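Repro:
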Amino acid sequence: MKRLFQFTLALSAIMLLATSCKPKQSAYKQVYEAAKEKEMQQSAAQPTVVVKNAGNLPPVSVAVRKEKVEPVYATDAAGLKKFSVVIASLSVKLNAESLKTRMENEGYNVILAQNEQGMYRVIVASYDDKATAVAKREEIHSTYAAKGNTDYLKKTYGVPFNDLWVLEREY
């Protein structure tokens, strides 16, 4: 009888441990929501620039993010200015290089920069002043949006061109 009780107790403990080790979807959801909330708070704290469009279009707010970035290649150092138009942020260097090559084939002078967290920023234009960078961002966005090519570009490059942003380089 004592052995049966010990066996039942051991079996119950194993079952309890086995079920508690399974990942719970709600735990992942909580972490995701917390990260998303933190991202929203950071983007809300970032300054925005209002750009007036030509014609009857409403003004557009453009987020300007500040980061410390360094050029990946020494040849890009001279082209990396204070304000840059970023089309993609990638964690894998090979993917960033591939996108750079494809965008250069489209006529862009692309710069790869890396931030302190190791993310590669694919930059299509870089300027010394914010207004010019914001205007270039809007020009790129409106050019592809007007042609209805945003889906094409997303399929071709994996980049949604409605998600362009301006990077202010910190030194």
